[in-house]
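Supplementary Note 2. Why include the ligand at all?

Several targets in our set were suspected to adopt different conformations when bound, so apo predictions alone were not considered sufficient. For every target with a known small-molecule partner we therefore ran a joint prediction. The input for zinc ion is given below.
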Amino acid sequence: MTKHLMVAPALILCCVDYRYIQAIQAFVTSRFGIRRYNVKTDAGATKMLLIGHRAVRAWILQNLQLAYERQGVRRVFLFHHQDCLLYGGSQAFKSLQQEALTHTRHLVKATRLLRSQFQGLRVRAFYAYPARGTILFKAVT
Ligand SMILES: [Zn+2]
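The joint prediction is reproduced in token form.
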């Protein structure tokens, strides 16, 4: 087998929330044609990577480092979602727009953090929300 056929997997970093995981995986496959990916789930997705205890942040980065170094992962997809329990749910915000804005800001920060930590890493971030009986995705980065 030639080396170029051994394409490295991507990595999805998303919340643990059962309402979104399958839709996120289906989205990555349908939108980007990617069928092989690691899935790293944390409550709140990237929230603890940004503001968690130092040991928690280090653990999350160690997971990514392993995928980067040992599997050659160079594409990461970050997902936050509406009504995330680690953010207090939608009721913690004045409006859905305010909620989406908070998640967008965190996704932008997390994208910058990962791009600065891992050379050549392609990072895309999306905000997921329910609409019209399905899950929709808004591109953030
Ligand atoms: Zn969540």
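Residues 15, 17, 44, 81, 84-86 surround zinc ion (CB under 6 Å). The domain at 3-139 is CATH 3.40.1050.10 (Beta-carbonic Anhydrase; Chain A). Comparable summaries for the other entries are listed in the accompanying table.
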